[in-house]
Design brief:
heterodimer, A: 267 residues, alpha/beta, Rossmann fold, 2 domains, 6-stranded mixed beta sheet, 3-stranded antiparallel beta sheet, globular, disordered C terminus, B: 343 residues, mainly alpha, ABC transporter involved in vitamin B12 uptake, BtuC, 72% helix
Chain lengths: 267, 343
Amino acid sequence: MLSGEVARADHLEVGYRGQPVWSDASFSIRRGEFVAVIGPNGAGKTTLFRLLLGLVRPVAGDLRVFGAPPRRGNPKIGYVPQSHAVDRETNVEAVQLVRLGYSGNRWIPNLTPGMFRAEQEATEEALRSVGATELARKSLGAMSGGELQRIFLAEALASRPELLLLDEPLANLDIRRAIELVELVHGLVRKRNVATLLVAHDINPLIRCLDKVIYIANGRVATGLPSQVLTTESLTELYGVPVEVLRDSRGNLVIVGGEDVHKDPDA
Amino acid sequence: MTSARASVGWSLLWSWLHLHLIWTWWSWNLPADLQLMLEYPFMRGAFEGGTIVAVVAGVVSYLVVLRRSSFAAHALGHVGFSGAAGAVLFGVNPFFGLLAFTTVSGTGIALLGKKATHRDVEIGTVLAFMLGLGLLFLAFYNGFATEAYSILFGDIVAVTTSQVWFTLEVSVPVLILLGWVYRQLLFASLDEEVAEAKGMHTVLLGVIFMLALAVAISVAVTVVGVLLIFALAVTPAAIAVRLVKRPLYAVLLSVGIALFATWAGIFIAFYETEPTSFFIVTIVFVMYVIVRATPAVAGLLTPAAPPVARTKPQPVAPYPHTDLRFPAPAGAPAVPPADSEPT
């Protein structure tokens, strides 16, 4: 294992009930890398997270997380799932959720004043690092989508992880909030040197911050630098049908041909 | 004709209100009244049993509200009715039948519906089968209308000393167990997927919650009965979560509300002919209505706040890594078109 390697996959294959989701994935993620996991709906992006979290087992191939097979409850991993039980009716102040992110898995927390102080410090630090100190006493049910995402991020950061898994944090955010969140995550990746995998539909808000892209489509996985993966040639090979990557004047990407494309009848 | 009948109804209501609210039987000298009451053994039993039930139900109701499990609470009450009917049929203490049916069904529901928020179908299926059993027991036995009545609506003043002790014996272990897993249960209720990823046994926690709920429902049936179970198993916490944001305070407040309603209900029922459960349910309901109505009323009374001045949108490049701006047409504000998208 290379030093500073957080996760490594060799010809990894995953499936449910004999049906393969994707196969032959090989990648390595190093400390402090910002990685986007991109692909169409149902391609198996969340499945990759469940593999890393040790919630599903690979069908074939080898996966190592921090040099060992993935195991459930690894304290070095922070996870923000896509769906949450929190809704408008949840009248619980935000700091409580962040505290649970630090010590929620302990049977009896805070037996000593020292433990209590450690928890308080970790909570405050996590809230500060996402710029949510002033949201600590606000009710989760009264928060906007962007505020909630920052609290979930703080919850994941409270246990000081070395690998952060963010599942669709940009969903339900408008473009301005999405960019703010990406900048926040990017700053955290650089400052804390925490490797981060971020699942997203749209690569464009992320593209300039990324160190690596894991592109999952058509049961296959392509990984590498954004400039290597997000090209007409590489995506055509991945999808197995002609795909074109277009670039607009501001550097944004449009991928055409991989999914259902509206065809102009006059063309 | 109808108006004459209606006026009879109104005058009856009016005299009832006079009798019960203005010329009360109690003296408004609380210590003296309580002393008088506690000289009766059945009143002591009612207060002791009611106190234990209120504490357990108050604690569990917070988790019920947090986990959106009121349908489970409702179902376990009805399942318990079948259990009690079966126990009466076989000549066993109805409370044992109640406890057996609720714990078995609760465990079954928790194991069938793994995700706490998507259990409606599992609960409904188990409930229908258990009620079917209850119907069978009722068909076999046709002499226990009064017992069925007390299970359906509760009868706290009929609680015996041995029942109080038994309530205590099943309640204390449940409270200790809940205290032990409280934080994990809170985490699993607020953020189940993260809790699972952190290696917590969310299914086991779900079973523990349903077991605690089963015991809380079983003991609460003796006070408010199956049909009014929400009054102690859901509403106290539903009031509390509207008032406080901290889970521990919400649990304590919920227990406080359950205790107040139970004590006040028993107190009033001592002087009145109406059943105790009615007073408990009414007290809890009035509190709930007040808590729900207060923000709306406050909103009506306070003058509308002046509209918050909208901050002028700052011209920002749509993507931070590019500095490209569209050249603004002459006379137009220097905001790129992409910024005018809804924020």
